Each structure stands twice: as structure tokens, then as C-alpha cells.
Fold each of these.
Amino acid sequence: MRNTILLLFLFQGFLLSAQEPPKMLKYDAEDSANIFYYQLDEVQKKIKIKKEKVKNITRKALISYNNKIKDISFLNFQKLRELETLINSVGDQVRGNPDLGRKLRKNIEIVILPIRDSIEIHEKKLNTTLETVLSKKQYKRWIKYQRKQKRNLLPERPRSTNQNVPSNMNRRSSRGRSNRRF
């Protein structure tokens, strides 16, 4: 009798632990606002710039961009830190309270979106400057590098330890582009 009750409690405990939601990731306000700086030497290597004149123009454009982003970051530092501490402290309570989630989302929109818009304006200026200087191939590499840097800012989704990921998940089907059979 004791063994069956003990087994019942253990089984129930396993079921409850299997249904726990993943932990809240640490929120980084600077990453969500797309605040990052380009490494000058790394950019020149990735784009494969050979000419000194083009290197100097690219370096000047990147330095001015980084300075503008530093100014934006400095001016909004307090807002971003407050938002970050608020979200990290209240993060687990959001799942159970949808009103709190809406308030946080609204707060994020108020703080983050204007910063993101101003950074986007500076990025467009940088891209137009680099487009005039770089060749088509180099500019294509630049855009690819820029996208990769932005993608690195996105947080990774937490994986559940209970679920097994199939080994062939990344394989493409041989059915073609539209995934049709015939």
C-alpha cells in the first residue's frame, strides 16, 4: 500500500516537472534596440577590401557610425537600464498575468522603438556611403555581414531538456522549392 502511494506521488511529480514552462531568458535592452558597434578590422576583412583609399573611406564611415551609436546609447542609457531591470524582475510573473504582459510590451514599444528608428536612420546613411565606395560584390558582402550581426543580437529560444530533437531536422526534402511531390 505504501509503495503504491509512493509510486503515485513520484509519477505525479514527474508529470508536473515535465510540464514546466521554460525559464525566462535574461532581457538585454541594448540588443533589442539594435545597439552594437562594428569592429573596423573585422569589417574590412569580411568585405575583403584591398585598396587603401577604399579602406580609409570605409574606416571613416564606420567610425562616424559607431560614434553616433555611442551617443544614442549614452543618451538613452538610463531608460534602457530601467526597462531591463523591470523586465528581468517581473519576467516570470508575465506568463500568469496578461495585463502585466501588455503593460510591459507597451513600455518596450515606448522606449525601444524610437531608439531603433534613430539607429536605422544612421544605418541607412552608412549603407548609402558604403554603396558608393564599395564594388557590388563587396557591398553584397557588407549587407550579408550586417544581417549576420543583427541576427546575433536576437536571443536564442530555450530548448526543453525533455524533448528530443530529431537528427534530420535541418535536412531539406528532395521535393523541390515549393515542397511538392510532382
Note: The chain is about 65% helix and 0% strand.
Amino acid sequence: MKQKIFVIDNFIEFPIAYYDKIIKPEFRLKIEEQYPESKIFQNISSILKSEIQVLECNDHILKENDRYPICCHQGSDYIGVLYLSLPLVNWGEVGIKFYSHKETGLDSFPTQEQIKKHNITDISKTFDCNAKYWKEYGSIPIKHNRLILFRSDLWHSYGNGFGSDLNTSMLYKKIIIKNG
């Protein structure tokens, strides 16, 4: 069975360079030469003990009124979220949250067997994003240079944004991964 969630602190060397790539786009190419994203991908590959294929890699900025719905990802194996917000900015903030569906008890997208067992006829209706259908069973605090690597079929949200500008908001890199 695949491990569901990894939490790795102090994930990369020189995390401030990756932070600068987000907040100083004019220096992005120069910083990328010295601190390529491929180093992040190599580290993730080492953790998973497998070659990986990066399907998507994006930087995200969430401000105080930004919210992400409960979701899961199909067509991939893992999602990596690397927090880059500065330490004092994110003190006490919660990032990734994990959920189970109240009616079925499922914490991940259903398999064909589970669809039959729970008599699910409309997946989008059964697994509506409305919070009243979900129970939060775990959350992981944001920490500068922390990677959260989790199975992409787990029901999750990316948390609530904070801060009012680029320097005080939640900054993270989201990487969608397929095992090679």
C-alpha cells in the first residue's frame, strides 16, 4: 500500500531563492539558472523511491479571502505542496486539510468496488464540495520550506489564504506528479 502523506521539513537548500522567484518575477530566469526546479523534482523522486513525471508545477498566492474547495485529483499519483511563505508571516496558519465524506466514510476518490458498495449513481452529486458533506480529519500547519506530499486521490483543500499583499500572503508551489 502506498503511503498516503509525507511531511518533510527543511525540504530544499536556499528556499528563499524559490520564494524570490515568485515575488520578483523580473529575476525569475536568473534565479532559475542557479536554483532550477529540477532539484525539487529530484528530491521528490528520492522520497518516493521512483522516477516521477511532473504533470503540472505552478506557484500559488492565496490572500485572506481566498478559499479552495474540497477536491481530489485523478490521473496523477501524488501532489506536492511546498510552502514558501516567510516564517513570521505564516506563524500559526493551517495549510492542507484532509477530509472524509460523511455519508460514505471515504477519504479518497471511490474505486469501482466502492461505487457499487455505496450505490453511488452520480459522483459529482454524492461528493459535492459543500462543507456540510465532509468531516475534516486532519490538517497540516504551514511552515516555510515544508513539503507536504500526498496521494492525489485523497479529498483535500489547500486551506484558506491569509495576508493582504504579496509579502504577507500564503505562497506555495503545487506539483502534480505521476510515478514513472
Note: The helical segments are 15-23, 28-34, 37-48, 112-117, 123-126.
